[in-house]
Amino acid sequence: MAKVYVFLAEGFEDVEALIPIDVLRRGGVDVVTVSISEFPLVTSAHGVNIEADMIFEQGDFDDADLLMLPGGMPGSTNLYAHAGLRKALMAQFQAGKKISAICAAPGVVLAPLGILKGKQATCYPGFDQALAENGASYTGDLVTVDGDITTAEGPAAAFPYAYELLSQLVDKQTSDQIAEGMRFKHLMQK
């Protein structure tokens, strides 16, 4: 079973965390939510309190198949400010393992770390300059996959992003079945 760690910081974008968590768990992925503060309770950008499965200091993320970053502000800034998370992301990247980020997180977290250098990526409009300044090519797509890095544009991309990650971690058939069961494919046919 694939293992994913989703890092939650104060001010994370609600749907960018919760939709992928939901979709991945429906698909049989072991998803662990991680608070980067000293407390498990994390407040989203829109005032929703989420109790993470663990706090960062309790983790050893070497067993991760994917490290995932929701966006939102100031959530993305708070993610980047966490030295331990930056170290874990660099270890994951150097090991050639999967990393994903959505909305502001590609520009605020991944780009300054050099993880997107020479890659195609997307992010929330306005954060694309950080991609260019750090050697990435901005696609403007809802979801962009370049090797082991998956990026997504913003809240509206949360479902396609989640299904893409599920395809990578389990298989496309499972992803398509979950999408159909959640009526996402029906929505896309309109």
Describe the fold and architecture.
- It is a single chain.
- By secondary structure, the protein is α/β, with parallel strands linked by helices.
- The protein is built from 8 helices and 11 strands.
- It has helices spanning 14-26, 75-81, 83-94, 105-113, 128-133, 158-169, 172-181, 184-189; strands at residues 3-8, 30-35, 41-43, 49-51, 54-55, 66-69, 98-102, 120-121, 137-138, 143-146, 149-152.
- Helix 1 (14-26) packs parallel to helix 6, helix 2 packs parallel to helix 4 and helix 6 (158-169) packs antiparallel against helix 7 (172-181).
- It is globular and about 40 Å long.
| Number of helical regions | 8
Mean pLDDT: 96
- Computed Rg: 15 Å
Tell me the strand order in the biggest sheet.
Answer: 5-2-1-6-7-11-10
For the largest beta-sheet, the strand count, sense and barrel status come to: 7 strands, mixed
Task: Count the beta strands.
Answer: 11
Percent of sequence in beta strands:
15-25%
Helix fraction bin: 25-40%
Q: State the separation between the terminal residues, measured CA to CA.
A: 34 Å
What are the low-pLDDT stretches, counting only 5+ consecutive residues below 50? none
Strand and helix order = EHEEEEEHHEHEHEEEHHH
Given helix and strand content, the structural type is: alpha/beta
Structural shape:
globular
Which descriptors would you attach to this protein?
190 residues, alpha/beta, 8 helices
Secondary structure blueprint with pairings:
Layout: E1 3-8, H1 14-26, E2 30-35, E3 41-43, E4 49-51, E5 54-55, E6 66-69, H2 75-81, H3 83-94, E7 98-102, H4 105-113, E8 120-121, H5 128-133, E9 137-138, E10 143-146, E11 149-152, H6 158-169, H7 172-181, H8 184-189
Helix pairs in contact: 1-6, 2-4, 6-7
